[in-house]
Amino acid sequence: MSPNSQRPSRSHQSPRRRLRATDAQRDSVWKALDAAMTDGQLDRFEHLERTRAVHRTTYVDELRPLVADLQGVTTDLPDESGRPARAGDAAGLERHAGATPVGDTRRRQWPVVAGVAAALVVLGVAVVASLPHDTPGPGLPSISAPAEPGPLHTSEGLERMLAAAREEFGDAPIDVLTVHGNRATLMYEDPTEPGKRLSHQFSGGEWQEPSFHSRTESATFRLDGIDATTVMDALESAPAELGREGAPVSHVSVFADVLGEPEFTVAVHAGERLGTVRYDHDGDVLRVDAPN
């Protein structure tokens, strides 16, 4: 018997098992990206790109590169040993198989002119605020649609939320108001410090204390300009505008048009993605964007 034949055969290392991401993990990454934009680590364009990427992820190792270069933000993503890790603290996250550096992705996928970029930023803010927290079924790569409209997507719930907002914020200039079925978020200019934006969340029937602030300039509208009936009509008609009658609505976001009037973007679940319909303040359709 030759010496070589006496050597034990070298065992081959089994491939690493890929873990599917949960909704809670995606949500923690979205929050980390929001915090990174707030403290200046990401500009709004980078924030938009990364938050859209979160929505497309299936596995945990696809989420890690999106936060690997950020400082001081915490996610619920486990590190390679299975322990919870802080974004930016675990070295080598971008070396996972199949991971593409975020910067390279941006250069390939976003060759847009300034005007289109600005429009996407507006849509991106809506998408960031829109991503729901419902738990998906086993194996689904993205978040699941709600079984039925939440309380804020009813006439009574919407009216109650708007009344509470008007009482809380008065005629403050509003940057964006996003309404999910069971919660709403609002960003407005701090009246005591022009240029400073504060973000509040409506949950449990009342507006909570500001969760973060940022310094960003955008067109604003007044809450008195929002007609609840127009918003409800938009919520009800958007699925048909997308050719998806009966599909559940994810959220509606309110932005200002160039004249300072509120306009409404309704996001509708289309399988694993979202389609959007944009309406003017009178409820006329301005644009329909099928899921991409």
TrEMBL record:
Keywords per UniProt: Membrane, Transmembrane, Transmembrane helix
Protein origin, superkingdom: Bacteria
All residue ranges annotated as the DUF1707 domain in the record: 19-71
Region (Disordered) location: 1-25, 74-104, 188-215
Compositionally biased residues, Basic residues: 9-19
Pfam families given in the database record: DUF1707
Transmembrane segments: 110-131
Name of this chain's protein: DUF1707 domain-containing protein
Organism per entry: Dietzia cinnamea
